[in-house]
Specification:
Rossmann fold; single chain; alpha/beta; five-stranded parallel sheet
């Protein structure tokens, strides 16, 4: 039976993607997952070698810790989601939940989130375990860790749903987290083993959003948790963030380096995998009975992608922006081509740049381009005569431009100085 197009219903809002015979935008940026509101993990494409490496490490040990780094937007979180799905198939427990690091975190905060994530994962996988003595003890500490938030939180395991109530009244002193938390986590892992699971995979994330000082604090926290938690049998930890942040968090202390000896660094996906990823999305979202029309032509995607240096999130944003700008003037039934896309995006991003950046930052970008063009790299030393400011001001400017998405720092090669390049929107604006 043909699929009923909801846009055919009386009073339906206009949907520009119908011009391309799609139900919705194929350029979504949500992480793939298992929840009923998530896009399916079947849309995950590529990273086969990295997936095998991570799974082999988990499967080859009773307890493991792996660091996964890479540039912003390269697909680290989606890779981990896919790994967790494969681990569940192999008899491990995991959920869509992740354990974030924040700027002001302490060991107690991270310990509380680790305990909470483990508790939620067990509850989602085995709801009947909620009456187990270890779960009762864990619930008390989880309530303390979540004091500041009232209401409920739902957790989805790949194929299973579960819920847990957050408390608003402490029944255990907050300091008990450091005293009792590791013991309770050990008891929960014993419960996992008794239930027949091979272990639990937990995802520590958000390192890419931390300042250098906060990354140093994350390193101290990992050192504190190494022996009492991270080394426990049955626990498999995936630590994810930008290459620099992960290097700081795992490399600052010898005790942490010994359990995170290497970092799996994700390089930019090859363009063939990017095209395959988009093709999978197009097929998934095509209205049944309609002919697929990719909104953006394949050659346009291939030309734009290198400008974003592997940042899939920013590429997808540019493709969606281009489609929305040009859908009303593009030829009906045809994909949007490179020439018109480039002109539209350049105009849009130039206007955004001139609005978002103050006059000083605009002048610095203009000077960057005038002294050697938009495609070459710069170092802090080479920028000093171009910008005519102090070393500290250069560092602040580059950090600001990185946050805004106009500049990216390349991976350091040995002891060579860090190289910086214009990326994404800046490349479109300046050519």
């Amino acid at each position: 039976m043909p699929e009923i197009d909801p846009d055919d219903a009386p009073g339906a809002l206009p949907n520009l993607w119908r011009v391309f015979n799609l139900r919705e935008s194929p350029y979504f940026q949500e992480t793939l997952g298992s929840g009923h509101r998530s896009y399916p993990l079947s849309l995950f494409v590529g990273r086969a070698a990295e997936t095998r490496h991570i799974l082999a490490t988990i499967g080859g040990s009773r307890s493991s810790r792996q660091a996964i780094g890479g540039p912003t937007g390269v697909g680290k979180t989606t890779l981990v989601q896919s790994v967790k799905a494969a681990a569940i198939t192999a008899g491990y427990w995991a959920s869509d939940e992740l354990v974030p690091f924040y700027e002001t975190d302490t060991t107690e905060h991270i310990l509380g989130r680790l305990l909470g994530a483990l508790y939620d994962t067990i509850l989602a996988a085995r709801p009947k375990a909620s009456h187990h003595a270890a779960m009762d003890a864990a619930q008390q500490l989880v309530r303390v860790a979540r004091l500041t938030t009232a209401g409920g939180v739902s957790v989805s395991i790949l194929g299973v749903g579960g819920g847990v109530s957050k408390g608003t009244t402490p029944i255990t002193p907050s300091g008990a987290m450091l005293l009792d938390g590791p013991r309770v986590i050990r008891d929960l892992l014993d419960l996992v083993h008794e239930a027949g699971a091979r272990g639990v995979v937990l995802h520590l994330n958000n390192l890419e959003n931390l300042t250098e000082r906060a990354a140093d604090r994350a390193a101290d926290i990992l050192r504190s948790l190494r022996d009492p938690v991270l080394m426990l049998d049955g626990l498999h930890v995936l630590l994810v963030g930008t290459t620099a942040a992960v290097a700081t968090a795992t490399g600052a202390h010898a005790q942490v380096r010994s359990v995170f000896p290497t970092t799996l660094t994700l390089e930019a996906m090859p363009i063939r995998d990017v095209q395959a990823m988009l093709a999978a999305r197009y097929t998934y979202l095509t209205i049944e009975g309609r002919k697929l029309v990719p909104p953006i032509a394949h050659d346009a995607v291939a030309t734009l992608y290198p400008l974003f240096r592997g940042d899939l999130r920013s590429l997808l944003t540019a493709l969606e922006d281009g489609a929305r700008l040009l859908v009303g003037v593009a030829k009906l039934g045809a994909s949007i081509g490179l020439d018109e896309l480039r002109v539209a995006l350049r105009q849009r991003y130039d206007a955004i740049l001139r609005t978002r950046l103050d006059a000083r930052r605009q002048a610095q970008l203009d000077a960057w381009v005038q002294q050697g063009g938009p495609s070459g790299y710069r170092t802090q030393k080479s920028l000093r005569p171009i910008w005519g400011v102090s070393q500290g001001a250069i560092s602040n400017a580059l950090a600001d431009l990185e946050r805004q998405g106009y500049v990216v720092a390349l991976a350091r090669e040995g002891k060579e100085p860090i190289r910086y390049v214009l990326t994404g929107m800046a490349r479109l604006v300046f050519g």
